[in-house]
Structure formats: structure tokens, C-alpha cells
């Protein structure tokens, strides 16, 4: 018998993308030039919240290739990638998958927060970006940058400006300041024209540095 096919991961795209592109092209000369370069490509969200955050922890401080390799081994351990299943895993098995002691602690804390209801996934749609960030950074191993990436790539919030992101700062430097150094306040000033679609503008700035879209 041929092996069973894995179910395809459902992919979501933002319903505001076209409107955002029109707004940005009208308000910002750089966006007017950048947006047409990437055709119909846009932000995509896939997977569930717990899996997305677990992947972000596994991938910290290692290359994309190494992260994928460790994730593939780790993902085979639980019967299902869910908080309760992760909490049942043995530390030795997780170590054998290539996870450090610290990352195991982070994954366990993530699973505990989801399993206990300390993160209010069902209420996120009615919560502000900052309230969600506050919940997420209470989990060990998740800082503000990871929380902002989650808001952009998983929840597809339209107006996130991740000022701690080196790619964004570098992209603003290249596109708006001829490569000169850029401060956070410079970046914030540029982004005034982007609101209420800072996430979309950020995505295009990233694309200007690396045309291959990032999947989070």
C-alpha cells in the first residue's frame, strides 16, 4: 500500500491586501515602485497558533535548514502536534530530536500556557495587538519580536511595525536613505505614511531584500 498522504495545510491570505496596496502606492513613492515588482504574491498564514509558535521556538538562533531538520524530527514525536501531547513527551526523546535543554523548557512552557488556557486564543480576534503581545511574551522563549512576527504571519494583523526587526531597518535604510544608518525614530517617521497597513509595507520592504516570501 502506498503511504498515506499528509493532509494539505490550509493557507489563508488577507482580505485587505488589494486595498492596502492601493493605499500604500498612493501615499508612498517607494511602495509605488516596489509593489508592482512582486505581482500577486502576498502574505500567507498557515497552520495553527500552537504549531506556529512551537516552530518559532525550535528555529531560534539556528539556520533555516537546521531548524527544519530539528522540527521534522521533533514533529514525529507527539501523536498530534497539540499542547497536551507535547506535555507527555520524554525529555530524552526531545533531546534526541536535536532540541537544547532550554528550548525544551520553552516548548513545555508554551504547551502549559495553551493547555491551561492562559493564552486566550478564542478571544484574540477581539483583542488589540498589544494585549496579544502581552499574553505571548509571558511565555518563556517568546519575546516581542516573535510576538510581532506571529501577529503579522499568523493572525495577519494589518498594522504591525516590528522596529526590532533588522531586515525592516536595513530595508528602510536601502530604500529611503541610500544605505545610510537608520534609527528607530527614522523608521517610525517613514512608517507614518504606511498606516494603517504597516504589516503590508513591512512585507514589501522584506521582499526588496529577499524576493522569496517568508513562511512563518
Automatic annotation (TrEMBL):
CDD domains membership: ENDO3c (cd00056)
Keyword DNA repair: yes
EC class (word): hydrolase
E.C. number(s) listed in UniProt: 3.2.2.21
Gene3D superfamilies per the UniProt record, alphabetical: 1.10.1670.40, Hypothetical protein, domain 2 (1.10.340.30)
Catalytic reactions of this protein: Hydrolysis of alkylated DNA, releasing 3-methyladenine, 3-methylguanine, 7-methylguanine and 7-methyladenine
Source domain of life: Bacteria
Keywords: DNA damage, DNA repair
Domain HhH-GPD: 58-210
Official protein name in the record: DNA-3-methyladenine glycosylase II
Amino acid at each position: 500500500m502506498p503511504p498515506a498522504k499528509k493532509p494539505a495545510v490550509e493557507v489563508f491570505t488577507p482580505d485587505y491586501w488589494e486595498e492596502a496596496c492601493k493605499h500604500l502606492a498612493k501615499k508612498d513613492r517607494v511602495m509605488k515602485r516596489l509593489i508592482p515588482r512582486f505581482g500577486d504574491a502576498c502574505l500567507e498564514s498557515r497552520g495553527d497558533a500552537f504549531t506556529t509558535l512551537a516552530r518559532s521556538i525550535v528555529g531560534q538562533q539556528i539556520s533555516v535548514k537546521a531548524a527544519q531538520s530539528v522540527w521534522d524530527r521533533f514533529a514525529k514525536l507527539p501523536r498530534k502536534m497539540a499542547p497536551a501531547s507535547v506535555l507527555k513527551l520524554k525529555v530524552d526523546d526531545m533531546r534526541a530530536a536535536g532540541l537544547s535543554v532550554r528550548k525544551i523548557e520553552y516548548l513545555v512552557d508554551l504547551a502549559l500556557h495553551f493547555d491551561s488556557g492562559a493564552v486566550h486564543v478564542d478571544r484574540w480576534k477581539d483583542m488589540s495587538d498589544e494585549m496579544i503581545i502581552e499574553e505571548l511574551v509571558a511565555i518563556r522563549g517568546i519575546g516581542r519580536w516573535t510576538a510581532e512576527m506571529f501577529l503579522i504571519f499568523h493572525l495577519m494583523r494589518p498594522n504591525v511595525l516590528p522596529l526590532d526587526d533588522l531586515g525592516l531597518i536595513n530595508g528602510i535604510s536601502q530604500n529611503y536613505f541610500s544605505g545610510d544608518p537608520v534609527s528607530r525614530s527614522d523608521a517610525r517617521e517613514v512608517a507614518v505614511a504606511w498606516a494603517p497597513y504597516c504589516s503590508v509595507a513591512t512585507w514589501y520592504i522584506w521582499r526588496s531584500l529577499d524576493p522569496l516570501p517568508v513562511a512563518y
